[in-house]
Amino acid sequence: MTEKSRCNWCLSSDKMIHYHDTFWGTPLHDERELFAKLVLDMNQAGLSWNTILNKQENFYAAFDDFEIEKVAQYDEAKFDELMQNAGIIRNKLKVRAAINNAQRVLEIQQEFGAFETYIWSFTDGKVCQHHITDESEVPATDSLSDRVSKDMKKRGFKFVGSTVVYAYLQAIGVINDHAEYCFRQRELLD
């Protein structure tokens, strides 16, 4: 059996390889998972993805499996509890942003019928197929992430700068940034 070619960024651990092979760049439409990935990506700001991936199970446990309605109703007691949880990133602004963003997702669901309808509306439901030959070509932002970020900020979302949004769009498969030599790039072509 020959070894599969993968994006170089994932080769640091078995956990990263599993994430790359199974989740990253796969078009996602599940409401709860779309919210979970948003919270995880905003928590990555200033940190490595490996750090977040290693704490991912703790995040799911701490944030009630990312049930949007529950997170949206978190009070100060729950905020204080989260701030004591060493298993997650205990950044006050990020924890408050997660609660705020759950409330914003509920508003989006009211307006659009679903959060996924809103997120995927920016590309008319299509995956942006980037053809990356060298991973150094992958931008930190682009015009799409700028547009989504601007709209989300206008709607009151927090921690959704263009860099965070670009990483989020990659993670949920709106953008396919798997390198051309990576087996997943071919699997995820429309």
UniProtKB/TrEMBL annotation:
> Where on the tree of life does the source sit, at the highest rank?
Bacteria
**Which amino acid positions bind Zn(2+), per UniProt?**
7, 20, 178, 182
Which GO terms of type biological process are on file? base-excision repair
**Keyword Aminoacyl-tRNA synthetase appears in the UniProt entry:** no
Establish whether keyword Zinc is in the entry: yes
What span is annotated as the signal peptide, if there is one? Answer: none
Matching entries from InterPro entries are given as:
Adenine_glyco, DNA-3mA_glycosylase, DNA_glycosylase
Q: Sorted alphabetically, which Pfam families does this protein's record hold?
A: Adenine_glyco (PF03352)
Question: Sorted alphabetically, which keywords does the UniProt record give?
Answer: Metal-binding, Zinc
Q: Name one GO molecular function term.
A: metal ion binding
Mind telling me which PANTHER family this protein's record contains? Answer: DNA-3-METHYLADENINE GLYCOSYLASE 1, DNA-3-METHYLADENINE GLYCOSYLASE I
Protein name as it appears in the record: DNA-3-methyladenine glycosylase I
